Amino acid sequence: MKNILQTLTSLKIVSKSTVEIFSTKTRDNSDCKVFRDKVSGVLYITQYDDKQTEDYKKGSYKTLDDPQIHANYKKIDDVERRIFEYKKYYVNKDICDVGCGSGLFLQSAMINAKSVSGVEIQENYLDLLNSNKITSFKSIQKHSKAFDTVFMFHTLEHISDPMSLLKSVKNSLQKSNGKVVIEVPHANDFLISSLADQQFIDFTLWSKHLVLHTRNSLRLMLEAAGFSNVIIQGVQRFPLSNTLTWLSKSKPGGHETNLSMIDSPELHNAYENCLRKIDETDTLVAVASI
After folding, report:
1. Which domains occur in the chain, in start order?
2. What whole-number distance in Å separates Cα of residue 136 and Cα of residue 123?
3. CB-based burial, 12-36: b 16+ in 10 Å, e otherwise
């Protein structure tokens, strides 16, 4: 099985001469090193084994095992944002969500989409999706139709061989105007890059996030997979209340406390726009065509 380092090296995103150890541990593994390329800024992990694949199938790494209740505040907030922002990519379209979890986005999009389909390897989620009439398989190659849009929300960073997945996605798209919409965590997150908040760094580094992308690394990967017209934008998922809580209390979840009262739409838009100017949002969104 290919590891992420082979892919990053082949695309000249990282090199042996410019790599340094960024951390000697992740939040869930004290023996897992995280590397950083000093030129590209990409963060990555080389460790991946079959146990992680089994974890994904069983969902054993999650704190909430019941797919019916695995819809916390942040997941609902993300779905609402995506439904608003990505309308032109799902209205009257045949769409597929790769790594769709319990299918919250698809359930919301299906009202206006032509058809919705899913790809998910967690077994209880897969059963739930199909029982909810969302045709889903463990691989996008199992789907017989060609899609207008394939979505991947915080999925690509978990894949040890992302090029194979991207090429499979490309082959599953309509040849005329098929598109992919991808969200990934950003290596230049404000709390990592400018603030160097060690508590946040210790928390956000996770053995299942094999790579944290920059704009350039995400673009290079998509273009190498055969996509064109790649547009990348910064998005700030977590509001200012979350950042302030990291700085004041060294823990996450500020957006779920009374401090969240400051998170008006106006403030969040201003905060997001400021972070976009310095390219330090917590998330990158790529839209690309075939």
Report:
1. 4-289 (3.40.50.150)
2. 11
3. ebbeeeebeebbeebeeeeebebbb
pTM, rounded to two decimals: 0.93
Which of 194-220 are b and which e, b meaning 16 or more Cβ less than 10 Å from the residue's Cβ? eeebeebbebbbbbebbbbbbbebbbb
Q: Where are the beta strands (DSSP E) in the chain?
A: 19-23, 34-37, 43-44, 94-98, 115-119, 135-137, 149-153, 179-185, 211-212, 228-235, 283-289
What CA–CA distance (Å, rounded) separates 211 from 261? 33
pLDDT over 90 at 55, yes or no: no
Are 28 and 207 in contact, with CB atoms under 8 Å apart?
yes
Assign 233 to helix, strand or coil.
strand
Decide if pLDDT at 10 tops 90.
Answer: yes
Structure tokens at 117: 């389909």
Residue 103 region by backbone torsions, left for phi larger than 0, else alpha for psi between -120 and 50, else beta: left
Which residues face 29 on adjacent strands?
A: 26
Query: How many other CB atoms sit within 10 Å of the CB of residue 237?
Result: 18
